[in-house]
Design a protein that fits this description.
The complex is a heterodimer. Chain A has one domain: Amidase signature (AS) enzymes (Alpha-Beta Complex). Chain A is built from 15 helices and eleven strands. In chain A, helix 7 packs antiparallel against helix 15, helix 9 packs across helix 11 and helix 9 packs across helix 12. Chain B has a domain of 38 residues: Histone, subunit A (Orthogonal Bundle). In chain B, 32% of the residues lie in helices and 11% in strands. In chain B, the strands form two sheets. In chain B, strands 1-2 form a two-stranded antiparallel ribbon. A two-stranded antiparallel ribbon of chain B has the order 3-4. Classes of the chains: A alpha/beta, B alpha+beta.
Chain lengths: 499, 104
Amino acid sequence: MMNSSPINLSLSQLGEMLQAKKISSVELTQTFLDRIQQYNPSINAYIALDEGKTLAQAKAADARIAAGNTAPLTGIPIAQKDIFCAKGWQTTCGSKMLANFIAPYDAHIITQFDAAGAVNLGKTNMDEFAMGSSNETSYFGGVKNPWSFDRVPGGSSGGSAAAVAARLCAAATGTDTGGSIRQPASLCGFTGLKPTYGAVSRFGMIAFASSLDQAGPMAKSAEDCALMMNVMAGFDERDSTSLNREKEDYTRDLNLPLQGLKVGLPKEYFAEGLDASVGKVIEAAIAEYKKLGAEIVDISLPNTGLSIPVYYVLAPAEASSNLSRYDGVRYGHRAAEYTDLMDMYNKSRAEGFGAEVKRRILIGTYVLSAGYYDAYYLKAQQIRRLIAQDFVEAFKKCDVIMGPAAPSTAFKAGEKVDDPVAMYLQDIYTISTNLAGLPGMSIPAGFAQSDDGVSLPVGLQIIGNYFDEARMLNVAHQYQQVTDWHERMPELVLPKEVK
Amino acid sequence: MALSIEDIKKVAHLARIEVSESDAAATLTKLTGILGLIEQMQAVDTTGIEPMSHSQDLSQRLRDDIVTKTNLRDEFQKNAPALGNGSTEPAVAGGLYLVPKVIE
């Protein structure tokens, strides 16, 4: 056994220790399982845990290490967002609808992690069907932000976010349809990457809005995200939108200097709606990039404000179609009492879905219904092209775009839950990259003081051109070589036991 | 375009989600707010702009016409819901799923 705790080590450090047999995968996994047992009852980051399955994988990883047959993530415990099917695991997507669903097969990325010898630590909490920005729509309850327990971790990948921030896993997976990796990464203070649409297979990932959904890594550093991407990305025949490109090494450019890097600052990302305290942190991060040799270019993404209305037509439209599969016939919730088939559908769906999911299905059904299709759906698709073209123009002037990932730091639980429109504005800086299909990431850039005097993390967003993930990871990694924001860890204060 | 309670009921029917009278009223308020947000789109002139359904310009891949999937019926049927109306048995029989009678 080792003397100091391995929870803060990077994935490559953990990999080296495992391969040098300074720690076994079983020991490392048990360390995280013990932390989960201690903190999860308060934080609620995990929906499903299965120590038997997890430790069996850790034992298999140790056997593999003993045989000298290792890959970079062999033996490392990873938390999986509960949107990914993992064979034999409860897979709920945060919904009552799937509360009893045991996945009969593995999602592509689960297969990839298994092949790499990684250990599945458990399934993490999330907004129901990934619809939310605070994790408050989960059927399994909200998740605490490890930096301040009365605040939300962001969403929809809130469980993975809290697990990474609280060191309840070595790294985690998430999905990002409108900001669900980057906004929680910002609110919980770690590194999260949404890859180019099509880079990571959607096979076995429960669908929300198929033209926008993209899986990505959530981890302590850019280097860790690069190692995760090496496992997650790649062509998969079973996803019709998976891009058939040559396999790449996402760590290849990490150490390149940033001299001459052109950083575009969109004026729309620093306009009204951005908290001044967040803006200050972002400006300081930009100043740091100047010191690293970056050149700052002013750019404009004039249609940014339209990304929210466009998204709230397209995403609900796609969701209303995708979620029509939950009819209570073959799997998922079926009402206990019903009169006929129609009544069974109506009641099963009314009972199985939560309020926000129902709202989005209804909006989606409305905008697709006869007489409204042109005014809403077609119009939104046209503006989607304008938004994508804004980026094409911007990338003629710069290599990467920077700005805030979220307009504010973590807000208090319950604060926006009854006001969907206020909640939707959380994703003002992230949604347009999903609409355009571009890669985006959030990295820790510092802390801002809340009104009630709590110091909360702020994320810097880095947006790249299509397939520029390796470059973005390089840009993030170089910043993380000269700053230590990404190494900060919240002090977890458990509520005192009531005796 | 102002939404009415009747619109909510119609859309809920199309979406196969039962809404009670009180739910319909609450839903109307929330959906009216969301549609207000969406209305911002109408100020944009989109004449002649080709709709964008997807970020990548992809064509449908073709594959050889051979069987690639294995039969997982038994595996899938383990997730069948309980039959309902007093029975907690899985809603399956002889490899089929059971639903209320729809053809007389």
